Amino acid sequence: TEIIKKREKWRKMTYINCWTRSCSDNVALWKIYGGTKNSVAIETTEECLERELRDGSIDGNWEIVSNGNRDSLPLSKSFDLSKLTLHDVKYIDYNSPSNELATKLLLSAPEIPFTHKHKAFSHEEEVRIICQPCPTLFIPPSPHVPGDLQIINGRDYLLHHLNDCPEHFDSCPNNTVRFPKGLTIRVDSRKLIDKVWVGPYAEKWFYNLLTEVLKKFEFAQDIIEWSGLRTPPHKRTTT
Predict the structure, then answer these.
(1) Of 198, 226, 185, 234, whose CA–CA distance to 17 is shortest?
(2) Beta strands, E only, the chain
(3) Which residue among 7, 28, 42, 116 is least enclosed by CB atoms within 10 Å?
(4) So what's the pLDDT on residue 86?
(5) How confident is the model at residue 153, as a pLDDT?
(6) What's the pTM value of the predicted model, to 2 decimals?
């Protein structure tokens, strides 16, 4: 039970950015993640993505409530971007009677549960950037008792235990730590983006608009291209 509670806490302060490793057009991904017919896909390389993220910066703060008093700490000091890496998602059968992976996932490193998905999603060929707070961010007393001091980023806080107000898990003003719902890492887009693919169902005006926007921000003119699925096979020319 304690392990499950700890996993739930990690889930609420774990940030994930998802990509696909597929090198070809995937009509399922366009339909599912394109959202509308006017959509784009960004192409980059693994090396470039890792480099730009590690050289990036984070703005904003996360909030802590200590004995009813609010305080803010910078997100930039809570996440170590220099250690960010890409994780290939492993697709497994969670329902297999002989599968002991569920127990292993619970007992493993904090990022491991976020690198596995049901094999029904294997067509995505997903790669994830997983951003979690530094392991030394939280050093709670063990076992934690309501009113005990908790050390966060080297500072002592008198915290209320969540069990003091079980009916207000997310909204109680005496909650311990609140991370923002999203995390923004600033990168150099011109270094990150190799190609902008326009969805196969997009309209011409959308393509023209993207061309003008990319030109305005001084991207190379050959960076934009239609999805190969836009032209039906019987209309393609071969040499």
Answers:
(1) 185
(2) 15-20, 40-43, 57-58, 61-66, 69-74, 86-88, 90-92, 116-118, 126-131, 138-139, 149-152, 155-158, 177-178, 185-186, 195-198, 224-226
(3) 28
(4) 92
(5) 63
(6) 0.77
